[in-house]
Amino acid sequence: MSMPQKLETIVTEFREAPASFRLPILLEYSKKVPPLPQYLEEHRESMEQVHECQTPFFLAEEIDDEGRVHMYFDAPQEAPTTRSFAGVLHEGLDGLTAEEILAVPDDFYTKMGLTEVISPLRLRGISAILWRLKRRVRGRLEARKAG
């Protein structure tokens, strides 16, 4: 499995930072989650809840005509760590092809050195977000091929 360049850059930023800076860097990514488009704001039931997260977290994705994946995340502002995971995934993966996203190592976040600053329960959340995103992307690809 390979890591897309955008995500590799983020991983390197964390890995090279002193442990004491990793959490503040992570929390900055909570600001990088774009607002939901209007149609998702009005139809949140079309988003999938990631039950493994400690806070209510929802995701949706689309694959455009060029085969690029666009992802949408909904997490409360008062859950900055969870929003930060969404920000990392959005910054590192949005706009890539489905194949590139499916090739991301499931444990890429371990290379970020977050185990030193984040609880295992929270790390399970980012793992679950990526797993569900990949499952949904895989399902969309299969539907395109079948349809």
TrEMBL record:
- Identification of the protein by name: Sulfur acceptor protein > iron-sulfur cluster assembly SufE
Task: Tell me where in this chain the Fe-S metabolism associated domain is found.
Answer: 21-135
Among Pfam families, the record links this protein to:
SufE
Q: Which organism is it from?
A: uncultured Rubrobacteraceae bacterium
The family assignment reads:
Belongs to the SufE family.
